[in-house]
Give the backbone structure.
Amino acid sequence: MANTMLELTNIHKSFGDNQVLRGIDLVVDKGEVLAVLGPSGSGKSTMLRCINHLETIDKGDIHIKGQALVEGGVYVNEKRQREVLAATGMVFQQFNLFPHMTVLENLIEAPIYVKGVARDEAIKTAENLLAKVGLSEVRDRYPARLSGGQQQRVAIARALAMKPDILLFDEPTSALDPELTGEVLKTMRELAAEHMTMVVVTHEMAFAREAASRVIFMAGGVIVEENEPKAFFNNPKEERTKAFLRNML
Amino acid sequence: MEKLLDMTALICQGAVVTLEIFVITLLLSLPIGGLAALGRLSKFKPLSLLMEFYVWIMRGTPLMLQLLFVYFALPMVGIRLPDIAAALLAFVLNYAAYFAEIFRAGLQAIPRGQFEAAHVLGLPHWHTMKRIVFPQVLRIVLPPISNETINLIKDTSLIYILAMNDLLRVARTIVQREFDMTPFVIAGIFYLVMTAVLTWAFKKLEAYYGKYDA
Ligand SMILES: Nc1ncnc2c1ncn2[C@@H]1O[C@H](COP(=O)(O)OP(=O)(O)O)[C@@H](O)[C@H]1O
Ligand SMILES: [Mg+2]
């Protein structure tokens, strides 16, 4: 229990008549790298976006590091939500860097204004993170001057600058040209090797197979199957999983 | 030659009135337009509808009519304003409506992803607006604001009908008195200089705020 980073209990979410999540139960432990697979429209993004309250759930509980974000469909107050969600970070498909800020400014904005970190210290942390993702040389450039792969690595560094305990990725390589996905996946593999807790929605089967510690397969708003990668890929149990994997490989 | 200098001096006094109307209108209508745009996009329906109605009236009727209304119709219901205040009221209400539309379009052009990125970093709403959204809106709205501002310089000549001694009216008075077209030429040059200065200033601003474009 002490090792539980994230716990989703019986999550339901509809958009109008469209029931997108129909009872999701999921526990993610510290250090796990969870790959979330599933066909388009199965609710993967919605599940991820519910975790950090980009979407509001209709029913269920979400606990992050044992602390309630929402219980019985009722959210804790806004101040408390901020505290609970401070443990999470997110990387989007479209990067969503702030275009009017340099790379460095993107990285230090939230640490300074949300956490009250001193500017010098925020800059030092940012420079270390940029070195880590191999982008020290773009420190003072604007995002529009970077390739997609570089932008996404900056986005990862920006999320890391807030020192989250769990990082959520929503198809981080899907908007990239194929030749640029490698550098982003490499950064993610390095994070995985450092035992960063990650939930990664992806269509990159090689990443799921090699870097994930566990794989879940979603379809129609439920988790259909879940297993460790080897068993998941070599020996899928459910018909829908088999059909999906046949299409992907 | 001396006559020309006299004329220019008189017209300069008119230009001061024109610039006064211009500067005060701009200083008031920009922030009011910004607030009206926020009201228009507010989730509070009555406020949003009220702002939509206000913009509809102001953009759907001529500025000339609005000037006449403030100047002649308000006194009939007992609201009496000094001349310059009446002119300013009409100009500010009119231009704020145009600026409101420009700001609204600018705000709506900011992708949702920017708000979402700010949210997942824990940035509070007001901070997100101030540091993430408004600077990007500024970049988007500068060109249309520049257009409207240059229109305003020229629109100030409408106060001519209110018998206020602005640039154009002073010029016309001299023309009628002296039977000499030169004052119109001088007035034209004044307007050209003012619009040229504005165009230059906005170019500088656009370059400064657009420095992050690829
Ligand atoms: N903001 C929204 N409003 C209405 N419907 C939405 C919204 N977001 C997602 N949906 C719908 O929810 C379903 C699941 O979407 P999503 O979670 O994005 O799936 P996935 O990420 O697995 O492709 C889809 O049918 C989609 O049309
Ligand atoms: Mg998705």
